[in-house]
Amino acid sequence: MNEPLTLDRFYSAPRLSGLKLSPDGRRLVIAVLRRGPEPNEMRSALWQVDPAGRTAPRRLTRSSAGESAAAFARDGSLLFTSARPDPDAKADPDKKIAALWRLPGEGGEASLLLAPDGGIEGVAAALNADAIAFGALLHPAAADLGDDAARAKARSDAKVEAMLFEDYPIRYWDHWFAPRRQRFFVAPLPADPEAKLEPVDVTGDVGPVFLESDFDVAPDGRTIVAAWGEWSNLPATPIDLVAIDVETKARRTLAHGDYYFGHPKVSPDGRSVVAVRTGFGTPDKAAATSLWLVDLATGEGRDLTATLDLWPEQPVWAPDSSAVYFVADRLGFVAAFRIDLADGTITCLVSEGALSDLCPSPDGRSIYALRATMSVPPRIVRFATTGSDQTPVELPCSIDDGGVAGRGRVERVFATAPDGQQIGSWLAIPPDASAANPAPLVVFAHGGPVASWSAWSWRWNPHLLVERGYAVLMPDPAISTGYGQKMLERGWGHWGEAPYTDIIAALDGVLGRDDLDASRTALAGGSFGGYMANWVAGHTDRFRAIVTHASLWDLRPFHGTTDTGPDWEHEMGDPYHQPELYDVQSPAGHIGSIKTPMLVIHGERDFRVPVGEALRLWTDLRRHGVPARFLYFPDENHWILKPNNARVWYETVLAFLDEHVLGKEWVRPPLL
Known about the structure:
Shape: globular
């Protein structure tokens, strides 16, 4: 805890995700991401952890391609995806397919179940049957997996990479919805661990929008429940909840309308489905999220969380189907909740820290989860399924992270906005900051925009700045989650108004402290936070420097180039007939007021905020004589994920801040 958090320590620390609990409750499996042997790669492996905390963790998989946990089968075998080569076939170094593998519950060598040419997109295993469901990518006209492989070979032989689109959307985050589209398959899980799967395509027809691989399979393996998009009537962008009968392939709609349904989970008794339901919202009313409970037989549904003024996420079932557990942003944390179906009682089981990956034990007594704080990365914890405001117990024999943590003091601070709303923030301060040695301050504006600061981050980590002597303020302004629907309404569709004044109010609220230097401040943000950075630049010159990453600059052209443009009309309105809101809320309209030095950062493969936003911003800054630099990553998307690229990101940001906030000489990162 007392060791400096250097970039070397930061990037050598293991990163935990995808916690899974075996059906018998005796094994936890987690994906552990570490630096790989190649200069600019991260590699994931699966580890087994003892829930009882008696035995040391054990690594289960090892390959040059890495592995990701998918699901436990009924027999306790572990299903996972990996692009590792098939040991029974000649290796093709140019072909890396996310294939499906099976690791026996008692240990041993993993066997290849299926390697469709387009790769596996999500896996679900039946609770009470030897059956699995999975998504796979196929060419639209392909009759089956074999035909798809033949079509891919024909394209490859002809050196053709062209894509034809006939519907919307055509891309998402960092990938194109072509030349393949997702379909659903089911297959019996063979008793022979060496046998291959014999999958059956149950999609029925091709053309739905699968933004995420959101589906589950019923305990008896006879029904798939999925999020199913149909966007032929833009700007309507619904994601329905559907059930697919495995035997007949018939599809029926369980819930639809002006909503997105996602993360469906079938109850262990097979009678119900719970899913996250998010309303679209309109320019006059913010979107809202709840948990929707559906009777699988009748389709009758009801809102489970109508009285909860928060946005629930990641629902999972109690083993006896009597309750649903979920997490939600709450007052600067990500709390864990239980809702009892019989009477609708909602209990906050854990209120502090940031919880995720809830895994209820089969005996119904405990929940295993990942828990992070603002100072410590995710670790495996356990808490009871009953009892409010518990303090989770960290598993004693878990993955060793080398004690990586932030050394700065972390405080929860509050300020008052001009309209009287309380604004909560996190403040990370160097341990030696004092009245005699006040720290310069950097404000981090969060992305989203519907999000909040609540946990350790591997991308925007304040403690790396704290190690350089900076304090970091992380405010949750209007449109942040965890503070009720009113907080979202304050910023919905009007990003440059209350969100901006809230950030300034949060800043003013801490600058009276004697351990902070009010004369040396900067602001940085990514995505929506980058939008806020651009907006701040055009509305005040109180900051010495501004860092804007993956940022929105001009909202009207952004609407036509982002991956799901019509979706933004639910908040900003119709840009073709009422473009006023887009124009008024665009930072580009205030370019003439920008005087603050700016560092612009963007990745070429960013489809959510296309690189054209950065190019326009850069041109406008240079044209208007604003001191600026542009850090460009041709091989990154919305996030800078490769470790050496991320190191360059931090080196450049810190050098830029040192130059303008501390008055030091600019030091160009050596790899640039």
